Amino acid sequence: MSSQLKICHVITRMIVGGAQENTLYTCQGHLERGHDVTLVTGPSPGPEGNLLRQTCPPGLEIVEIPSLCRNLNPLQDWKAYQELLRFFQTRYFDVVHTHSSKAGILGRLAAWKASVPLVVHTVHGQPFFPYQFFLKNWLYIAAERLAAQRCDKIYAVAQAMIDQCVQAKVAPRGKYKVVYSGMDLEAFIQAQPEPELRQQLGITEKNLVVGKIARLFDLKGHDVLLAAAPKIIAAIPEVKFLLVGDGPLRTKLEKQAAALHITDHVVFAGLVPPTEVCRYTALMHVLAHLSLREGLPRTAVQALAAGVPVVAYPLDGTPEIVINGLSGYLCEPKQPDKVADAVIRLLKNPTRRRKMGEHGRQEVQKKFSWRLMSNILELEYIDGLDRKKAVAKSPQPPVNKTVRTSR
């Protein structure tokens, strides 16, 4: 096998999000190691941003398939599958690595059909989860089982993702491996509060800042944080809530803040490029991560790298990052009073905040380097291809033939 691999990553869309950053860092790492890397994606319209317009590693080939869309659409999905199949049949990749649910299902089916030597997938977050309609969950689980049969290995950004897949009987445990989602932590470790940015956001040095970094989207928990805000404000009048991100729920959340009479305490920062997020994290005293569905919460890792403790739910991969009582607090999902109590407890005790933030910083530095992630995946590709080549070369056992004789 040549030392240079032809690798194709497939993802549904390249919005500004965790799975997308993970994929782009993986591409960058493999390009730097001398591999030929292509990224196939669907369109990325809307207020959630387009990551490729903000950053793109030199030498990365980008291929956009218009029919590869996030929402279920049988006609478009069939068209996307056919386009992926033709693409794989003509490009002769060594590895196809799929990401996200839609691209993961269509991409694996097409790559397997095209006889790509190694087909792998990363679970960044489950398409099935407790807070979703059961028929939709059933459909996604059935599709994931089918796709799992047509790939060689499945990686997960957290152990919780594997446990959920095994429990749902998507695939046996031996088909999975944890590869923690990598990111650039140095920028968060080094970032310091900037007076100019603070002034731009209407935040003073006297304010205590509760941050949230997430798309303004369903299941991200902005509504719960705003519902918890009046209780937090009553206990700590100088508090500000800094919401970093944009999305379709912005108008609804602005109306919720107005109805609660907390508009003066809420700052909508809007969409921020990933390279700039560290500047905003540096202004925070606590991060609230209240998503009901998150494979591995990158924002929690980044906040802890900045020394900021986290209040979160014990869902998905979050307990693998936020250790209750050591690097933050885990509280019951969808309970604004519980969220408020945890936030107040941290804001009122600066010594506890610093201690928890420092513990979290030390822990995340050990696990979440993006270069470590890309190096692990490169070794996985090489090992997987070598094993398949060895199996192909090994002699096959003779086929027993029964000779029938007439009586």
How would you summarize this macromolecular structure in one to three sentences?
This protein is an alpha/beta fold and 407 residues long.
SSE diagram, text form:
Elements: E1 6-11, H1 18-32, E2 36-41, H2 51-54, E3 61-64, H3 74-91, E4 95-99, H4 101-113, E5 118-123, H5 134-148, E6 153-156, H6 159-167, E7 176-178, H7 186-190, H8 195-201, E8 208-213, H9 222-235, E9 239-244, H10 250-259, E10 266-270, H11 277-281, E11 286-289, H12 298-305, E12 310-312, E13 328-330, H13 336-347, H14 350-367, H15 370-393
Parallel strand pairs: 1-2, 1-4, 2-3, 4-5, 5-6, 6-7, 8-9, 8-11, 9-10, 11-12, 12-13
Helix pairs in contact: 1-15, 3-4, 4-5, 9-13, 12-14
Q: Can you tell me about this structure?
A:
The chain has 407 residues and is α/β, with parallel strands linked by helices. The protein has two domains: 6-182 and 369-393, Glycogen Phosphorylase B (Rossmann fold, 3-Layer(aba) Sandwich), CATH 3.40.50.2000; 186-367, Glycogen Phosphorylase B (Rossmann fold), CATH 3.40.50.2000. Helices cover 43% and strands 15% of the residues. It contains 15 helices and 13 strands. The protein has helices spanning 18-32, 51-54, 74-91, 101-113, 134-148, 159-167, 186-190, 195-201, 222-235, 250-259, 277-281, 298-305, 336-347, 350-367, 370-393, and strands spanning 6-11, 36-41, 61-64, 95-99, 118-123, 153-156, 176-178, 208-213, 239-244, 266-270, 286-289, 310-312, 328-330. It has a seven-stranded parallel beta sheet with strand order 3-2-1-4-5-6-7, with helices on both faces. Strands 10-9-8-11-12-13 form a six-stranded parallel beta sheet, sandwiched between helices. Helix 3 (74-91) packs across helix 4 and helix 9 packs across helix 13. The longest helix has 24 residues, at 370-393. The protein is elongated. Mean pLDDT is 93; it is low at 403-407.
